[in-house]
């Protein structure tokens, strides 16, 4: 088996594997879904310094796929169910087997915080691309405003409903303001239910009742840390959103991944433990 196991093929995991490959260090990435992770949901990524006009999240995923190909990265499309340390090695368990590594990189990202109602979608990339009449977005942060920009391009009306003053980047707020088909409202959702036979949802909120085609939830994210929670080991590394709290940014995930690979290389080459 390879020296390094990496859990998660988002930007953080792939950045780690690419930098390791540049040192000639082999890794195996475990991914339960698709290459790319969360960034595929982004309307326009502009703060990585190389795309002043912005780049769609989906295009970023295409670039990551090119990296995987160019560096011939090994990806196992398996969900990691458990991680243990045994006999000086990390054991990574999936339904298909147990894999052993000297180093383990956890780049598992986050999952959405959910509302207690059925019928809400949390990732805009999962929404079929079609025309929508009215879309309700719940949340007042960057993700809610970013989703609004995406769906406003194919919808007649988009409502962003938030409990308190918007927390989204002023830059995103300005873009949202410039779209005549997006409006923001203050309020809380009380109930969501399907409207029989019409494929629509009724959202009862403190700002009024809305009949909508789609509801997107963006009320925060929770780190996928459970696999290694409480585990401390010099050869265990956390990379990207799983460790970055509210500072969830692509550039930070990439930086974590590259630094992790550099530390692993130095340890192998010079025995450094800084
Ligand atoms: C709408 C939106 C817009 C954004 N816009 C920007 C922006 O403009 N600029 C910016 O810098 N950032 C932006 N971000 C944030 C950015 O997407 C994240 O910071 C970044 O993608 C995090 O990468 P990551 O590799 O840490 O985690 P993720 O991308 O979440 O990847 C984690 C991967 O791990 C996999 N995984 C998890 N658990 C397991 C397991 N047990 N077994 C196997 N695989 C597992 C998941 O399937 C996933 O593929 C945006 C985010 C959203 C939602």
TrEMBL record:
Q: Which GO terms describe its molecular function?
A: oxidoreductase activity
- Does the keyword Transferase belong to this entry? no
According to the entry, every stretch annotated as the FAD/NAD(P)-binding domain falls at: 6-230
Q: Which residues form a coiled coil?
A: none
Lineage, top-rank taxon, reads: Archaea
Q: Which UniProt keywords apply?
A: Flavoprotein, Oxidoreductase
Organism, by scientific name, is Thermococcus thioreducens
Keyword Signal tagged: no
**What protein does this entry describe?**
Pyridine nucleotide-disulfide oxidoreductase
Locate the transmembrane regions by residue number: none
